[in-house]
């Protein structure tokens, strides 16, 4: 069995998340990540990394990373000439004739997966071209670098995470959220459905597996506190990248840091039903899991492109929700490597999580999560909303 998808993906998130604060927060990935081997494993930053150094290093990293990723994406783009499905306008006919397309580099948070569905479909359906954009989707070789490359303007937009944004802005990175891709948390605590754990309170005296500490520990502590427990009531066990295997083999009774759209599907694929405890129902303020970030100084120059990009993403999201089966067909046909049973389950599990209005900003989410992190000592100071997030459609 491959490593737990969340654990592997989260390992890359660590190195940029808490460069000076702590080693933390994880990402989710897929069986595909196992195929990438050691080459995809991120390099952890040193404790002496500064925000400026991070940006500079990101530029250097980008010079190394982008050619391979770009070449791969270019090759894929050249192959993606299939006609649009059903009631969708022909991408070629949809291309803007009046003026040249504006090239936009968009770096994903990880290798292409169902969580990137709206982007892939916007490309496949010709929606980016309809909005005057020539979008280049780039998969990072190191999942820690996308926000840094956006901060350094080596890419125009990067996919990142709301908790990560708070921490990186606190560290001084010139980043701002311009849109939302997945509008709910994906993080969950998972147990076997055939266990005697029916609620978080039942975790007392149990073994809980985790991949990394830091914010994950803060989130779990808050969930336990919501049920009258503390971290002293459980036994934390580091299971490294084996969240799902550790649960399936009963090495632990629960795991934290799993992703609700993948781990549960992975368990089902192995014939074991899981039970999830959702962090937003257990005392943790809700947040946007996947967001689009850009250099905060570039906003005035690229505002129109950002708005056009988000319009295309929103149209693709609406289309794939209206046509989930056609959407899955287009998605898997965009790259044969995506056509797996786990990805298919994840596709349908992720659909209801996508932001229907990617540009819309929920100011309360950013205010509440900022306060949550500040009160727990995860950030040094509170930021004003416009330092964290922007509504590109605001007057």
From TrEMBL:
<protein>
    <submittedName>
        <fullName>ABC transporter substrate-binding protein</fullName>
    </submittedName>
</protein>
<feature type="compositionally biased region" description="Low complexity">
    <location>
        <begin position="42"/>
        <end position="64"/>
    </location>
</feature>
<keyword id="KW-0732">Signal</keyword>
<dbReference type="Pfam" id="PF09084">
    <property type="entry name" value="NMT1"/>
</dbReference>
<feature type="signal peptide">
    <location>
        <begin position="1"/>
        <end position="31"/>
    </location>
</feature>
<feature type="compositionally biased region" description="Polar residues">
    <location>
        <begin position="71"/>
        <end position="82"/>
    </location>
</feature>
<dbReference type="InterPro" id="IPR027939">
    <property type="entry name" value="NMT1/THI5"/>
</dbReference>
<dbReference type="InterPro" id="IPR015168">
    <property type="entry name" value="SsuA/THI5"/>
</dbReference>
<feature type="domain" description="SsuA/THI5-like">
    <location>
        <begin position="113"/>
        <end position="326"/>
    </location>
</feature>
<feature type="region of interest" description="Disordered">
    <location>
        <begin position="40"/>
        <end position="95"/>
    </location>
</feature>
